[in-house]
């Protein structure tokens, strides 16, 4: 057991470990990695990277499990989306990718020693977090994608919609930060 503990202590002091897992990447390194992952994703799956469409499908699976029937909804009118309704969780590529993002973000936070459980200060903070999450999710579905699908993938596909999304993303971030500073800080 001591050997394992010593291994992790030595690993934590290793310069490569520190460079890759403790220090933040430069913006250039992050951009290059995102580009490589985007190209790899498109090459393997034949479609752009997306996140929020899978969350919509998750919600529909829950709705159907509770006795609802979303099969007649306009969102599921196409044959492809009808097939999506009947795909199992582990057979759905989007679900696996989203789990990878969630657990990858957790692992990166843990490796960087940045994981913290913070005390909730006020009910106002809880309400703001819930409303913010709901508005972001609703907005992502209205925009037919989040910053990955509607911005990153669209720009990489030379689509004007990505640039329009990016402009309004900046406007929304500016307004949101002003509201956050005024009412919640």
| Helix run count | 9
Distance between the termini: 46 Å
Instruction: Provide the helix percentage.
Output: over 70%
**Mean pLDDT level:** 83
**Stretches with pLDDT under 50, minimum 5 residues:** none
Shape: globular
Radius of gyration, in angstroms, nearest whole number: 20 Å
Class derived from helix and strand content: mainly alpha
What does this structure look like?
The protein is globular. By secondary structure, the chain is an all-alpha fold. The model has no long low-confidence stretch (mean pLDDT 83). The chain has helices spanning 2-13, 15-22, 27-45, 52-65, 79-85, 93-111, 123-142, 147-156, 160-183. It has nine helices and no strands.
Main attributes of the structure:
single chain; 185 residues; mainly alpha; globular
